[in-house]
Amino acid sequence: MFAYATPLIGGLLIGTSAVALLWFLGRIAGVAGIVWGAISAQPDNAWRWLFIVGLLLGPALYHTLTATPYPVPSALPWWQAAAGGLLVGIGVKLGSGCTSGHGVCGLGRLSPRSLVATITFMATGIATVYVIRHVLGAM
After folding, report:
1. Is the dihedral of CA 67, 68, 74, 78 positive or negative?
2. Which of 80, 111, 81 is nearest to 96 (CA)?
3. pTM value?
4. How many domains does the chain fold into?
5. Same structural domain for residues 83 and 52?
6. Percent of the chain surpassing pLDDT 70
7. CB 45 within 8 A of CB 37
8. What value, to the nearest 5°, has the Cα angle with vertex 84 and ends 80 and 90?
9. What is the tens place of the pLDDT at every residue in 51-104?
10. pLDDT, tens digit, 9 for 90 and up, residues 24-35
């Protein structure tokens, strides 16, 4: 039962926080835009930093309260992780938003652009996993 409850509760919390941010501040909970606004010193910065702190403390609080182990650190070399992060950042700029902005908030607002973006990044992710696991034989 707990294995099904955890993702359900997590999804409800994500949806509730996205709706609350839109309702109270009129802002979309796109994490890339929130982080960019925080580091580029936008005038309304406080809520952005609180959102980021919540994103970081939430999993730590979950692991502490449920006594579940933290995920095993990746064996990926730092430069590959940095290159992947750079590619994600380029994709976020090209797609005018990230997975949370398009997938969670945009689809909830019935945005056609977000539907296309979500289909694109889901298809790209599926194709990438297929190529890495089945064509290249990695993992």
Report:
1. negative
2. 111
3. 0.73
4. 2
5. no
6. 98
7. yes
8. 145
9. 999 989 988 888 888 888 878 888 889 999 899 888 888 888 888 888 888 888
10. 998 888 888 888
Question: Looking at residue 97, what is its pLDDT?
Answer: 83
Three-state SS string across 74-90, please? CCCCHHHHHHHHHHHHH
Domain containing 23 equals 1-71
Q: Which of these three, 71, 94, 112, is where a domain ends?
A: 71
Which residue is associated with the tokens 């889901």?
Answer: 122
Mean pLDDT of 3-24: 88
Cβ atoms of 32 and 98 within 8 Å: the answer is yes
Distance, CA of 54 to CA of 47 (rounded, Å): 10
Same domain, 31 and 4: yes
Residues 6+ apart with CB under 8 A from 138: 132
Which stretches does DSSP call E strand in the chain? none
Return the closest-CA partner of residue 116 out of 126, 105, 103.
Answer: 103
Rounded-to-integer distance, Cα 42 and Cα 34, Å: 10
Mean pLDDT, residues 117-139: 89
